[in-house]
Every structure is written in C-alpha cells, then in structure tokens.
Amino acid sequence: xxxxxxxxxxxxxxxxxxxxxxxxxxxxxxxxxxxxxxxxxxxxxxxxxxxxxxxxxxxxxxxxxxxxxxxxxxxxxxxxxxxxxxxxxxxxxxxxxxxxxxxxxxxxxxxxxxxxxxxxxxxxxxxxxxxxxxxxxxxxxxxxxxxxxxxxxxxxxxxxxxxxxxxxxxxxxxxxxxxxxxxxxxxxxxxxxxxxxxxxxxxxxxxxxxxxxxxxxxxxxxxxxxxxxxxxxxxxxxxxxxxxxxxxxxxxxxxxxxxxxxxxxxxxxxxxxxxxxxxxxxxxxxxxxxxx
Length: 292
Prior knowledge:
Elements: H1 7-32, H2 38-56, H3 66-89, H4 95-102, H5 105-116, H6 123-140, H7 149-171, H8 177-199, H9 210-234, H10 240-246, H11 249-262, H12 268-291
C-alpha cells in the first residue's frame, strides 16, 4: 500500500526537522558565548551562513528587486531582535529554560496572525496552542511563579519569533523564498556586526578552539542555512499557527540536548509540561485528519 503524503504534511515534517537543529543550539551557543562575546559569535555564525547561501543561490541574485530587499531586511531585523534577546538571555538562564520559554511564541502567533493577517486559526490549532502554552509554563516557571531577567528577555524574544513567523508566511507567498532567505540572513550578519563593533572588545577571536569550530558548523550550516531555507519554503504550504505549534518542539529538543551535552535536568513538573506540549502538537496535527 502506498501512502500519499499531502504537501502540508511534508512541509510540517520538514519544519519539525528544523526544530531538532534549533533545539541543539541552545546549549551549544551557551557554551560558545562563555568563550567569546555574544554578538561577535552571532556575527561569525551569520557571516558563514550568508556566504554559503550566496554560493548556493548565486544565479538567482540577478532577480533581486527593491521589494525583495525591503521585505528581506524587515525579516532580518525582526529575526535579529529575536536572536539578540535570546542569546543575551543565555547569559542569565539555563539553556533548557531559554529554549522552553522561546516556545511561548506558540501563544503569540495565533493572536498576531488573526490581527495582522486576518487568519483565524483552526479550532484544533487553538486547542493545541493553549495546551502548548500550559506545557511551556509548567516547564519554565519556578515554584514561586516569578521570572528572572533571563526569562523576561526570552519572553521578549518569543514575541519577535511570533512576528517573524507571520511575516515569513506573508512574504514567502509573494517572493522567491531562496532570495528572501539570503537577504534575511545577510541582514542578521550586518546587525550583529554593528552591535558587536559598538559594544564588544573584538569581533574575531585570536584563537578558534575545536569547540568553537564545531559550534559554528552546527549553528551556521544546519541551524541557519538549512533551517531558514526550509522554513521560508515550507511555510507556503502550511499555516502560521501550525508552524508555531510545530516549533514548540524546539524547547523539547533543547531540554534533551541540554541534558545530554550540559547535564541540565528538569523537575517532575517540567516533564509533565513536556507531555502536555506533545498533546497540543498531536491535537493540532491529527485533529483535522480525524474530523475528515
């Protein structure tokens, strides 16, 4: 028997693969910015990614126009804001906690999508988003139900991630997604470089350790080039709310890699939250199929 997968399901599976790479980067980046300044690290990461993207899609560059440049720069600035708040937050909070709180974009995305894109999420997506929000809260909030400076910075990051998702949904339907990705990541590089020059002692370290080289390979090649080419392409075939719910798996993988690479352990409440998040993703994905 041959199972025919819909374009939407294939897009969702590719987006899920992106969350694995993104989830692995939290603990990797946290260790890397202990070795070099935060925005210097981001500058090198996104510069490598930009060079690779330009090489990959060089023939398409002749199709550049003012509209793609404008929208790509907007996407890049919004995404830079998300990365800036998230990476600085890693200086103050555990990688797994930052990963989980980034998942709060799942509750912001449907709201922004309804307000700015006039796209009301399906009932299953709404239920999934609520469950995912409850799960993230259980995994992140401490016993006192208060948040540290690192956690507050991550919540701001989650707001920018939600904006990036809905803007990607809008722009990817009107432009070549590969060109859009090139401009977006190039903008990230320029923004990171400017902030690094203004606030940090250096951009290029005198010595690149084996760990930093490994870190740049993972974050630039897999978590940037692969991830954003997939996101900008796959979002043509799915919805912003479903994308946000799929991306909720990012903090789950952040927790797994945080344990495997950094020895970070969750509380029982955290693991219960993870199960609730899985339930939200399952309902969002399976609900429409069961209804049919």
